[in-house]
């Protein structure tokens, strides 16, 4: 079988599995799980085979796979069903296949009693197919199809628990915010095609290399708006933390391999287009810096374990876009691959924790004793993943994050001629600050989730093997993927990704400082919390004057509802952030700003339109209908059937006309 055929089958098989699942899921329940898992696993195997044939493991690899057929004549700029598979695309496709397969297998246990599992599994398969289409596509219009299908799938998957208002609001918010970015993105694609005369990726890159772009800054900024929405970058990142209302496996899929990875992949694929504008690179660097630092601060203040990981994803995507801002696609893709493994592990591990603890709240978990003993698989694998997230050597996150910082240092010191040094300094300083904060919130999550003190953790039963086995599968790349640092350059750009001494020392140093300071703060706050007597009232460490019942803190019996909302005096994040905590906990009020600038004005305009429609337009419409009715009623009353009445009316009319004629004649004389 040719490589082209294999590449076509990779996105096609999950699509066929999704279609079959939707059609047969209700009628033949026994086929639901095989149709969910087997097509995705087969697509993974084919993606690996394509990667072996197209990759660079032999010192440069083979030429990129390019194949195309014109769909239909569209005028001067044709749209083609095109493939463009190089080592870069092959690696990302393998990542998508691995994470999607793990998610499907995990979901068979996590949602085993969910009556809507058939539609859920089909949508996950469709989601996977759409991302693989984005990865392998060689035509930007075909890429856009996969791009938009992912947005639709995310709407349904985030809103899977549609009975809850949080899920409904989160799905709608995710859809609207990403669509807000997609409008300028589509305009940017048309502008790019107008400048280059094609939607083909290879043609566009060739034209850019020849200096064929007339409006590089405008095109790059329009495209960045779509990337910011899809990859949850500032200022369009607010949808991603709310998307945690969906099932945990969906969160793992969105955060690790699909949806948010699509924006980073797109910029990496068309990096020469963005590099043609120095202004666009600086804008990208600023966007990445604000995203990194702001999301790390927000993660340090979150109570929901999934929201901590959501803000973590935003920050790690900031590292990737930061690497692209300094012109290093290799470092960005390296971190994309590394992050995909350990972030999928973190979310799936969080699902096991939630299943065991019966709550998402870190505050509630911090009051449970022995939770880690009930879920040893999640404890050890999440420890590995959190060490990778904090970039502690020798875990994979260390190598990939240091590759980003090394690229930023290289640019900042003036060794990259085509990239402004300012972009390098922005990314480097923000990256070091974020490394400190990342280690801090990773340590906080580990301490609160697994080292709680208080009543014995509840026993919610043993987790299914399909959930725990997947964790160990993902722990392997989280631990060992850094060893690929010497091999990966051969797959695409060819330059070294080995960490430099300066950034390694700085990055690891600040990470260790963040972890140790957080541990010290936790020891301090835990000691203070232990001395609060039962039934007493303790001051809220926020400094905002709030009060909390210590008795509520010490117990977690009543379904955790009131307890989860109570401030936790053992939370080191409150001590570390101080007065900033309450602002960071709500994402620095960005949602409130959007509500004031956009939501409320739009709602007010909608109310005005409704008022005008009901009270003005409908008044005229009702009047236009009522006037003939009134006239008809008057005429109907005159039709009495009495001849004398008719003759009297005729005589009166004749008299009136005669009088009028006399008056007119007199006036004329």
From TrEMBL:
Keywords (alphabetical) are: Membrane, Oxidoreductase, Transmembrane, Transmembrane helix
Tell me where in this chain the NADH-Ubiquinone oxidoreductase (complex I) chain 5 N-terminal domain is found.
Answer: 73-120
- Keyword hit for RNA-binding: no
Q: Give EC number(s), comma-separated.
A: 1.6.5.-
- Which terms in the Gene Ontology molecular function aspect does this entry carry? NADH dehydrogenase (ubiquinone) activity; NADH dehydrogenase activity
Supply the source organism for this entry: Streptomyces kanamyceticus
Q: Where are the transmembrane segments?
A: 6-24, 31-52, 88-107, 119-136, 142-162, 174-193, 213-229, 250-268, 274-301, 308-326, 332-357, 378-399, 419-448, 469-489, 501-522, 646-667
Location in or out of the cell: Endomembrane system; Membrane
Secretion signal, residue range per the UniProt entry: none
Every NADH:quinone oxidoreductase/Mrp antiporter transmembrane domain range: 137-408
Q: What is its main location?
A: membrane
Gene Ontology CC annotation, any one = membrane
Q: What is this protein called?
A: NADH-quinone oxidoreductase subunit L
> What membrane topology is annotated for this entry?
Multi-pass membrane protein
GO BP annotations of the record are: ATP synthesis coupled electron transport; electron transport coupled proton transport
What the entry lists under InterPro entries is as follows: NADHpl_OxRdtase_5_subgr, ND/Mrp_TM, NU5C-like, Proton_antipo_N
Q: In this record, what's one Pfam family?
A: Proton_antipo_M
Cited Gene3D superfamilies: 1.20.5.2700
